[in-house]
Description:
The chain has 21 helices and 22 strands. With 616 residues, the chain is an alpha+beta fold. The protein has five domains: 3-97, Alpha-Beta Complex (DNA Primase, Chain A), CATH 3.90.580; 100-226, DNA primase, catalytic core, N-terminal domain (DNA primase DNAg catalytic core, N-terminal domain, Alpha-Beta Complex), CATH 3.90.980; 228-366, Dna Topoisomerase Vi A Subunit, Chain: A, domain 2 (3-Layer(aba) Sandwich), CATH 3.40.1360; 374-474; 496-610, no CATH class. Helix 3 packs across helix 4, helix 15 crosses helix 16 (449-474) and helix 19 crosses helix 20. The longest helix is centred in the N-terminal third of the chain and has 27 residues, at 100-126.
Amino acid sequence: MEINDIKSQLSINQVLQHYNLKPDKNQRLLCPFHPDKTPSLQIYPATNTYCCFSSNCDAGTGDTIQFIQLKENCNKHEALVKAASLLNGNTVAPQQPGTAAKLFIEAAPLEKIAVVTKLFKYFAKALPLTKKAVDYLEGRAINYKQHEAGYNSGDWHHKLNEKNFIASCESYGLLKAKPAGGFTTWAKDCIIFPLKNAENKIISLYGRSTTNDKEQRHFYLQNRSGLYPGYPALQTKKLILVESIIDAASLLQQKEITEQFTILSLYGTNGLTEEHQTAIASLPQLEEIVLMLNADEAGEAATHKHAHTLHTLHTHIRITHTSLPAGEDVNSVLCTHDDAKVLSDLIEQRKDFSFSIEKEKQSSSEIIPSSLTRLNTSNQELLIYDNCQLRIEVWGGIKITGLDRMKVTLKVQHKAKQLLPIRDTLDLYSRQQTEHLIQTISENFDANIKQTETTISELTNELENYRIKKIEALQPKEKAVNEMTAAARTTAISELKKEKLLERHNKMIGLTGIVGEEKNRMIAYLIYTMRKQQNPLHVMFLGASGSGKTYLQEKISELVPDEDKMEITQITENALYYFKQEELKHKLIIFEDLDGALQVFYPMRELQTKKKISKP
């Protein structure tokens, strides 16, 4: 009996029943792998898997075999023996290595290696015979003769139709059976590159679409593993990390570069996996890592992130980064330049990362804007969050009122897979609703649940920052206080010291357009200037209708700076009580008409006599 047979025949409910565990009607139960008060372990009978949503638990997501491993605290071999015994109705103790169980454990990965190796050889023979594939690579400035590469036309299963081989391909995701008969092939119309393990054997495949550059362009097999072009040699001293396999192929063609550097491709912007880190950490002679990622916002953010991750692996080595032209990647630079030496020049001009405290602060100021730009707020009714794997649209925007909730309507799309989007309305501050969304995204898009949880958390943080900025933008800004310059102050004092001050001022007031009224205009001006004194004077303009009293008041008030006066047409009886303590100090308060001030006569008299008012 092979591993796949055990997994397909042994249900998760059988395993739970063996350990006396029973899920509720929602297929949830208290997690047995950590102290749990609220059921956090979700069971999926349809797929025979489980998932613990608690942040305090390391159980994560797994199948029946992994559940037994955790429960028995044993290795995979012992768990398989236990699973086989449960399937046969026996409860036996785990056997020692050397039994038949061990044979199929060791045979499974070899079988996959044999399958993908045989299939890649077929693809490699098909590439030079397919003009469309050759033309595509030439358009990307890639010489296929210098690389291990193939082409998948999608009809290989008609020629390699051995029964066992087809069944194996189906189990590893290379073929998918159609309900009406026949198969759908993985990575049809794609250039195929091999991914290799530490023994330099092909363990998996990568496909780059030749027909679709907008939706699904990249294809990996399930349970992605292996590196391109392979694990770095142990004697590697200088290592270049690029964002894509096409970028790696672009550098591998340059002899001048490969003589000095080893090339290793990531799985995209966020594709520095544990396998990459393990391979890099095992290089004893490594002296330098060069990050050569795309020159866009996502690439710059990933460069900073990966630099710090790599620094923790090798604290003593030099970490540098290149500066590609804005919006370009390695392959696009190669395509747009006649001389491939441009790539060597860019590598020669690489810059060092500094991990000092001062540099950390500077770097953070560069990282934060690029992180914030993940949330596109150009349309307040349609906010867009993009983290390279998922595109999340917030329809209708968010409300700035009610900081205790974050209710949103989301449309979630997977950027690399042609799947139907997920739509949901929820409160991101509700743990139950958020966990349900994370679970739905992970199941529908076959995404890592931890990464999905991080994405939703980052989206929530972005929306919080956006909402706070909107609230701050609505707050009234304090007016700048106008102060006299030293030159203006000197000129004013000199003017005040001259003889016949009042006479000269009266003449200057007349130049503003007030003809006649020489005594009245001078009295009004002097009283207005008394606002700065400890005991200011007050004035009332009296006269028959149409006599020009309002005109006189307005023209004299124009001689007072705007920040020192307050012109009121009408005021309610309690309005004066709402001013701040110092807000009316040394201010000129002007009522244009007596009728508009009738309701505030009493508080006005109190201000004139006591210079303060209060109300319980």
